[in-house]
């Protein structure tokens, strides 16, 4: 096409003839027409006010089309989801329909903006400037007539509400109800033969009999026997081999006082056979579960029915066991009821602080389902807790091992839980403090309602990064969840760590309140008297502090602790309360009681270096400790800090880096010290 022809088209108004005889134009001309129209619309939107643009959208009925299209698309997706298994359609059918609907959406919006459908056919919509609009007189009241399209839109929206309601308001709720005896009651109906092959009629009662038998072996389920079902069918004038309509299936369940009933059918296409089963709530008619098994025409239906009943049995047993599982741990993401049962027992041991037993139970759960990511993850958790309190490297190595296992199968978990596993991987495997902090920030945005989850986040901020406010925010989230659930959390570590975070912020009133609640639930836990003594000492309440310290000393002696251990904890108590003179006094007694113990040397040496109370003496002590254990990362860290305070920055960096290399996990505070040493070295040049 000649350039002057294109120039002429560019100079003309595109609107009067837009899309008229467009098919007869050359490709280049089509592009120019479309380009100028887009420029025109963009210009119109930019020049008009938001109110004017909204009026134009309504005038062209674009808003109505968007609503109608969205509602229709939602209904089509729901139908596709229901019909895909019944019609033997491939699993990608729903994705294909979704893609087509997404592609069609902009086309529909553009079409309704440009054209109107009138009794005379499809016509281009006039622009607002060319449309003749007669303004209404102020006194006039126009009564709007109900149009067919209004009724159609209203019906669509009603269908959307009906379909969306259980998805929106039933999310996260346990819909399978238990009977007063704590069991799930079920009536199993005969299965419908949809193959058209009368020789397969025996499958109708055969499948239901197998389901009744397999489900009846569960101690969590109450299943009506086939004879009882036969009597009910006869009472409603149906034989056991007759096709049972949904209304009659419900009637049978009602007569038997079963909270749920199972219906199903089997279908045949060529040599393929499919059995479908549905679990329905008797009271609400809500579909709670659906499952299928596939085979060929020569398959043994007993094997197929066993497979189907196994799926259903696991689903129902997990629902029943969930009722006795702590709310914090109910979501576990396993399809094995046996694995979930052991997992449930493991969470109870975890909350009771019986960590070795918790590890055993979680391992049993993992053996029953080797894709059970949360079981592996909580094994790592329990090992980590023991490692922190005992300094036993074996438990640390187990925490690393099980963190790696959980990471390998993390795809079995939702995104928020995957990020939680990623955080632990960053802590124990890659040992990357920046990644740990990044995942902490992501986890803060989660809507997971597990207090254990938020406690782990709070402890990471508290102990790992010394970020007191963020730690308190995480612990406050636990308070909010507990308030919503109407119950305080029965986990002693939570009260200890929450109070400690408040202590660091100087909020001693809140700290004292938290410890009081902890003692209320755990009166035999001596650590709360330690915490209260720290709080009282920091507040200057010497009388109360003395009473609490005496009580703490008595408890330590009753537990058979050595005098050295008692003096160490008293030193730690006064250090936490920032009463440094008394802390130093007790740390010196510890060293005097056991002068050849490297840990005692490091405790006093590190204290003297940290608080500038005698750096040279502290360095002598830590040098002696390193002679006994030259590879201990904590001794190397203390030595590095001492060198830094002496102005020996390169030497400090060397020791700090050695400590980092020997660490079994991320060490954010050590990373900060390493960076401080590097910065100090750079300033020298």
Describe the structure concisely for a colleague.
The protein has 685 residues and is α/β, with parallel strands linked by helices. The chain is 65% helix and 7% strand. α23 runs antiparallel to α24 and α28 runs antiparallel to α29 (668-683).
Q: What secondary-structure arrangement, pairings included, does this model have?
A:
Layout: H1 3-11, H2 27-47, H3 50-59, H4 62-86, H5 93-114, E1 115-118, E2 121-124, H6 148-169, E3 184-188, E4 192-193, H7 202-216, E5 221-223, H8 226-235, H9 246-255, E6 260-269, E7 272-281, E8 287-296, H10 301-322, H11 337-351, H12 355-368, H13 373-390, H14 393-408, H15 415-428, H16 433-444, H17 451-464, H18 468-485, H19 492-504, H20 508-521, H21 527-539, H22 542-558, H23 563-576, H24 580-593, H25 598-610, H26 615-628, H27 633-645, H28 649-662, H29 668-683
Parallel strand pairs: 3-5, 3-6, 4-6
Antiparallel strand pairs: 1-2, 6-7, 7-8
Helix pairs in contact: 4-5, 4-6, 7-10, 10-11, 11-12, 12-13, 13-14, 14-15, 15-16, 16-17, 17-18, 17-19, 18-19, 19-20, 19-21, 20-21, 21-22, 23-24, 24-25, 25-26, 25-27, 26-27, 27-28, 28-29
């Amino acid at each position: 096409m000649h350039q002057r022809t294109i120039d002429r088209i560019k100079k003309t108004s595109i609107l009067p003839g837009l899309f008229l005889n467009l098919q007869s134009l050359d490709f280049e001309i089509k592009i120019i027409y479309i380009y100028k129209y887009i420029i025109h619309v963009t210009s119109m939107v930019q020049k008009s006010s938001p109110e004017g643009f909204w009026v134009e959208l309504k005038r062209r009925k674009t808003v109505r089309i968007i609503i109608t299209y969205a509602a229709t698309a939602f209904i089509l997706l729901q139908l596709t989801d229901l019909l895909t298994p019944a019609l033997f359609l491939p699993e990608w059918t729903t994705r294909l329909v979704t893609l087509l609907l997404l592609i069609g959406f902009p086309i529909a919006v553009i079409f309704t903006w440009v054209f109107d459908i009138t009794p005379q056919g499809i016509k281009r919509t006039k622009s607002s400037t060319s449309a003749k609009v007669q303004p209404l007189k102020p006194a006039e009241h126009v009564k709007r007539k109900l149009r067919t399209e209004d009724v159609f839109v209203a019906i669509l929206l009603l269908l959307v509400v009906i379909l969306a309601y259980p998805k929106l308001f039933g999310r996260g709720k346990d819909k399978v109800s238990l009977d007063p005896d704590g069991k799930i009651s079920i009536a199993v109906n005969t299965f419908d033969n949809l193959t058209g092959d009368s020789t397969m009629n025996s499958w109708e009662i055969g499948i239901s009999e197998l389901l009744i038998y397999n489900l009846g072996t569960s101690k969590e389920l109450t299943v009506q026997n086939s004879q009882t079902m036969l009597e009910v069918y006869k009472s409603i004038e149906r034989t056991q081999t007759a096709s049972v309509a949904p209304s009659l299936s419900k009637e049978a369940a009602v007569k038997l006082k079963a909270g749920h009933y199972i219906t199903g059918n089997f279908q045949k296409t060529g040599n393929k056979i499919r059995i479908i089963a549905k679990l329905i709530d008797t009271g609400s008619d809500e579909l709670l579960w659906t499952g299928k098994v596939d085979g060929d025409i020569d398959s043994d239906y007993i094997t197929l029915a066993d497979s189907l009943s196994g799926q259903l049995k696991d689903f129902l047993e997990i629902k029943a066991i969930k009722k006795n599982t702590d709310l914090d741990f109910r979501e576990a993401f396993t399809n094995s009821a046996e694995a979930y049962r052991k997992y449930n027992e493991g969470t109870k041991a975890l909350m009771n602080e019986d960590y070795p037993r918790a590890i055993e139970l979680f391992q049993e759960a993992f053996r029953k389902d080797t894709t059970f990511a949360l079981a592996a993850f909580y094994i790592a958790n329990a090992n980590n807790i023991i490692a922190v309190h005992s300094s036993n490297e074996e438990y640390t190595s187990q925490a690393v091992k099980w963190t790696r296992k959980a990471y390998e199968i993390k795809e079995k978990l939702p995104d928020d839980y995957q990020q939680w596993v990623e955080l632990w991987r960053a802590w124990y495997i890659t040992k990357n403090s920046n990644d740990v902090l990044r995942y902490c920030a992501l986890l803060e945005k989660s809507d997971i309602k597990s207090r254990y989850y938020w406690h782990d986040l709070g402890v990471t901020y508290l102990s790992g990064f010394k970020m007191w406010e963020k730690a308190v925010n995480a612990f406050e989230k636990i308070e909010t969840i507990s308030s919503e659930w109407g119950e305080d959390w029965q986990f002693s570590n939570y009260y200890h760590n929450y109070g400690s975070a408040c202590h660091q912020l100087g909020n001693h009133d809140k700290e004292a309140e938290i410890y009081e609640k902890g003692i209320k639930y755990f009166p035999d836990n001596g650590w709360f008297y330690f915490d209260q003594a720290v709080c009282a000492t920091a507040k200057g309440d010497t009388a109360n502090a003395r009473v609490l310290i005496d009580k703490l000393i008595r408890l330590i002696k009753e537990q058979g602790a050595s005098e050295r251990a008692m003096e160490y904890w008293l030193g730690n108590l006064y250090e936490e309360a920032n009463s440094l003179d008394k802390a130093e006094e007790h740390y010196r007694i510890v060293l005097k009681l056991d002068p050849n113990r490297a840990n005692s040397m490091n405790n006093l040496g590190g204290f003297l270096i940290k608080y500038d109370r005698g750096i040279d003496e502290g360095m002598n002590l830590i040098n002696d400790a390193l002679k006994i254990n030259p590879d201990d990362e904590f001794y190397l860290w203390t030595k590095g800090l001492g060198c830094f305070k002496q102005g020996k920055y390169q030497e400090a960096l060397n020791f700090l880096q050695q400590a980092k290399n020997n660490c079994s996990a991320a060490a954010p505070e050590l990373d900060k010290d390493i960076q401080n040493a590097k910065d100090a070295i750079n300033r020298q040049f």
